[in-house]
Amino acid sequence: MKTIKALPLALLASTAFVAPALAQEQAKNIILLITDGAGPESWSAGTYYRFGALGHEVYDGFDLKAYMATHPLNTSSEPTFSDEGTVTFDPAELWTDTAVDTVYEGALGNYAGYFSGYDYARADYTDSAAAATAIASGQKSYNNSINWSNNGESLRHIGEYVVDSGRALGVVSSVQMSHATPAGFLAHNVSRNDYAAIGAEIVESGLATVVMGAGHPLFDAAGQAVATPSDNAYRYVGGRDVWDRLVAGETAYQLIETKDDFEALANGDLALTGDKVFGLVQNSATLQFNRPGVGLGDWLENSPDLPTMTRAALNVLAADEDGFFLMVEGGAVDWAAHANNLPRLIEEQIDFNMAVEAAAEWVEANSSWEETMIIVTTDHGNGLLQGPLSDTVAYQPIVNQGQGAMPLVRWHSDTHTRELVPVFAHGAGSEYFRSIAAEETGLSRYTTDAASQIWFDNTDIFRGALTAMGIDEVAAQ
User: Fold this and answer.
1) Dist. CA 403–CA 29, nearest whole Å
2) What is the crossing angle of helices 195-205 and 240-247, to 10°?
3) What digits encode the pLDDT tens for the residues 171-204?
4) How many CA within 13 A on the CB side of residue 253?
5) Is 154 a catalytic residue?
6) Is 338 labelled a binding residue?
7) CB neighbours of residue 476 within 10 Å
8) Cα–Cα–Cα angle for 24, 25, 27, rounded to 5 degrees
């Protein structure tokens, strides 16, 4: 992984991305980047540590900044075949600062309620599977669903629409490639936990041109080789038999595993035997988060970083003259938030932000904003991260301590929330999102300018992407 090195503040004016004015066209390519489990203040934490001030990330120069609702259809873990338990959402409820004496019971311990708005944010939240399903299929479903409806039916996801349109599909993640978010763009299953079936569908369908992630059966979470893996170790790649076929070259994919190969592919120096690549990082869990320790530093040497994987995927997908759809997930921001681990949340968020930079640089060098759209968002909040005095001041922002220093924060949960979360978009078709957004002045709590105090639903990402690419099937949803 790259060393986290912030640019000197004096250089920011000359190095920050500035979005050009756009003449909106149909999108040939779409790059969707999702930082999993990042509430609004999680984004700020990464930027404060990296730059010492807000406003210097590449997406800060994008045409659109808005917010997105993330609630699921219901919080069941299986189809209910009924409307019972359907979740409703009113963003105004988030900002209610009536004092409460409730206690939220988390996995790490108990969290005082403080304000009724916090209780609302912590209730009826989505999991990553339902969130991915909503974004990828345009349909709300129950928690645990991988493109599976509450009526027990398979849902067609955006990857299938994209491939049918003649474009290529790519999916990249910093966690296991059959985990909830990447699975949402590759597979269908009644349960996100059926990793073996999901992994088998990903490999055997050959739907995607590029699949990259962790979940290697022959390595542990510290990146160390395992001499005798159990059968369970193969679940993320579809089981031992699927793995053996993948290694033997009996699937649609060329397998790459080493950091050197990821970097060579990113640099255009790796010879490919076919047109499809399956990149499996030598780690059973994630690129870096699960390594020993809890703080920064001592990174695993055999893991590529997310920007490298993003560039590698783009190099393969760009060979398709008809265009592509690429989803890139920074998956371990969510894992850090579950652990209330601020240093590693910041580390993961910065790695994600650098992947966004890699994508924007690719557009500038190899495409144009008239034919490519980038969307940057998260699937849900996690941890209800706020400032140190947010026990007495509702939604107090985290406190900047300067470049290279941990901001001052307070955690109010150790699991997901239904906060409104940031969305940034730029390029061909991005005007769609502003056209369907609703105003929400309560977003001023995040020191958001008036033009950005707007929101839409996570299912609108699906509709916006297909509309931008001119795929007619969107009308049937």
Assistant:
1) 35
2) 30
3) 999 999 999 999 999 999 999 999 999 999 999 9
4) 27
5) no
6) yes
7) 6
8) 120
Which one of the listed residues 42, 76, 116, 128 is annotated catalytic?
A: 128
Strand 99-105 versus strand 110-115 pairing type: antiparallel
Would the annotation count 379 as a binding residue? yes
> How distant, in Å, are the alpha carbons of 197, 228, 239 from that of 220?
21, 11, 16
334 annotated to a ligand binding site: yes
CB 216 within 8 A of CB 239: no
> Residue 228 in contact with residue 203, Cβ under 8 Å?
no
Look at the block and give the residue holding tokens 């909106």. 24
> 20-476, what's its fold?
Alkaline Phosphatase, subunit A (3.40.720)
One-character DSSP codes across 41-56: HHHHHHHHHHHSSSS-
Region label for 40, one of left (φ > 0), alpha (ψ between -120 and 50) or beta (otherwise)? alpha
Q: Was 181 annotated as part of a binding site?
A: yes
List C-alpha distances in Å: 7 to 15, 38, 261, 360. Answer: 9, 23, 28, 18
Q: Which helix (H) or strand (E) holds 37?
A: none
Helices then strands, each counted (H, E), the chain: 14, 15
* Residue-wise DSSP of 296-352: S----TT---HHHHHHHHHHHHTT-TT-EEEEEEETHHHHHHHTT-HHHHHHHHHHH
380 is in an annotated binding site: yes
Please tell me the pTM assigned to this model. Answer: 0.95
pLDDT in tens, 123-171: 999 999 999 999 999 999 999 999 999 999 999 999 999 999 999 999 9
Contact 163, 96 (CB under 8 A): no
